Amino acid sequence: MTTRVLVLTSSILDGNSLALAEHFKAQLAGRDDVAITTRDLIADELPHLGLPELSSWQVPADERTPEQRELAARSDALIDELQAHDVLVLAVPLYNLGIPSQMKAWFDRILRAGVTFRYTEAGPQGLIEGKRAAILAARGGQYAGTELDSQTPHLKHMLGLIGITEVDTVFAEGLAMGEAQRDAAMGEARQAIDGLVARL
């Protein structure tokens, strides 16, 4: 049985989060039981979500105008791609204590009420089942476990909203705090990634 892995990258720089993603993929190279798809959210940048696109989702498919069909197809294709994979890997730099806006634009099209989650009397219920995720987080400073790390809970909450609750996190931190610190942090992160890969 083949495990299908979707890797999302989101760095505007030739940076450390990309290096973590490449290491993850390199550890899987040659394995016949794993298939990898990479989506570069910078090279294939999505526009910010606007009202016309949001409204297109509310119209029944057979009643949409040509423009609405085109707009809705963007979200539909991304959700179909996610559904077709077993593991989601998010390679994420930290920009101003948050995620890159390009990744937020992806999530804005994945988090769709009635499609990937629904509202119930007990609260939101995720409709994406049987999937797991890994966050590969690269940061210039050291934030994990502090109040300043708003990025990690944000990502886990968004994933949890659609039903992905099994989430591993790899941190490479202090990358702007000197070469020795950077090398040590990246080395530890690569070892952690090796552990994740071994469980695939």
Automatic annotation (TrEMBL):
GO molecular function: electron transfer activity; FMN binding; oxidoreductase activity, acting on NAD(P)H as acceptor; oxidoreductase activity, acting on NAD(P)H, quinone or similar compound as acceptor
Keywords, alphabetical: Flavoprotein, FMN, NAD, Oxidoreductase
Protein name in UniProt: FMN dependent NADH:quinone oxidoreductase
Cofactor note: Binds 1 FMN per subunit.
Annotated source species: Halomonas caseinilytica
Function: Quinone reductase that provides resistance to thiol-specific stress caused by electrophilic quinones.
Entry cofactors: FMN
Residues annotated as signal peptide: none
EC number, UniProt record: 1.6.5.-, 1.7.1.17
Subunit structure: Homodimer.
Binding site for FMN: 11
Residue ranges annotated for the Flavodoxin-like fold domain, each copy included: 4-194
Family indicated by similarity: Belongs to the azoreductase type 1 family.
